[in-house]
């Protein structure tokens, strides 16, 4: 199975875009939507079309697994159940500044992304350890 990185970002007009870092089935894939979910759904439709064209040319298409890399606006659009303020507090980031990042008013730096990556790894670990009875 081939793993392909998909970059997810919000455009200046408020729409969300997905594009593959590398070609898939001989083509770079691009998709858009009013939400990240719409953009991801559009990307999957593009993948199926590219796969069909690839197989029509007599080639064998290997399975593709997408990994997603989000900007802050896209991340909190897609994972809207996460509270921006609480994630900021947990990551040691000023909540007001974090809200400005998620609205695209200010741009987060590399250290902020590193803090958020560590925070999300911690949240993931906590969720994987949780269960209900």
Description:
It is globular and about 55 Å long. The chain is α+β, with helices and mostly antiparallel strands. The chain is built from 5 helices and 4 strands. Helix 3 packs across helix 4 and helix 3 packs across helix 5. Helices cover 48% and strands 19% of the residues. A 4-stranded mixed beta sheet has the order 3-2-1-4. Strand 1 and strand 2 form a beta hairpin. It folds into 2 domains: 69 residues, Double Stranded RNA Binding Domain (2-Layer Sandwich), CATH 3.30.160; 48 residues, no CATH class. The mean pLDDT is 95.
In the CATH hierarchy, what is the class of the largest domain?
Alpha Beta
| Shape estimate | globular
Distance between the termini: 36 Å
- Low-pLDDT stretches: none
SSE string, helices as H and strands as E? EEEHEHHHH
CATH topology of the largest domain, anyone? Double Stranded RNA Binding Domain
| Mean pLDDT over the residues | 95
Number of domains: 2
Individual helix count? 5
Protein name: Pilus assembly protein HicB
Gist?
With 133 residues, this protein is α+β, with helices and mostly antiparallel strands. It folds into two domains: 69 residues, Double Stranded RNA Binding Domain; 48 residues, no CATH class.
Secondary structure blueprint with pairings:
Elements: E1 2-10, E2 16-20, E3 30-33, H1 36-56, E4 64-70, H2 72-78, H3 84-91, H4 95-102, H5 110-129
Parallel strand pairs: 1-4
Antiparallel strand pairs: 1-2, 2-3
Write a concise keyword list for the protein shown above.
133 residues, alpha+beta, Double Stranded RNA Binding Domain, 2 domains, 4-stranded mixed β-sheet, 5 helices
């Amino acid at each position: 199975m081939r793993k392909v990185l998909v970059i997810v970002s919000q455009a200046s007009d408020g729409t969300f875009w997905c594009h593959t870092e590398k070609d898939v089935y001989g083509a770079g894939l691009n998709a858009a939507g009013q939400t990240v979910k719409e953009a991801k759904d559009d990307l999957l439709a593009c993948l199926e079309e590219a796969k069909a064209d690839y197989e029509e040319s007599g080639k064998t298409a290997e399975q593709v697994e997408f990994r997603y890399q989000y900007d802050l606006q896209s991340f909190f659009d897609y994972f809207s159940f996460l509270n921006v303020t609480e994630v900021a507090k947990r990551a040691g980031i000023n909540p007001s500044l974090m809200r400005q990042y998620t609205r695209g008013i200010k741009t987060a730096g590399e250290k902020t992304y590193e803090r958020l990556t560590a925070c999300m790894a911690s949240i993931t670990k906590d969720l994987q350890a949780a269960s209900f009875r």
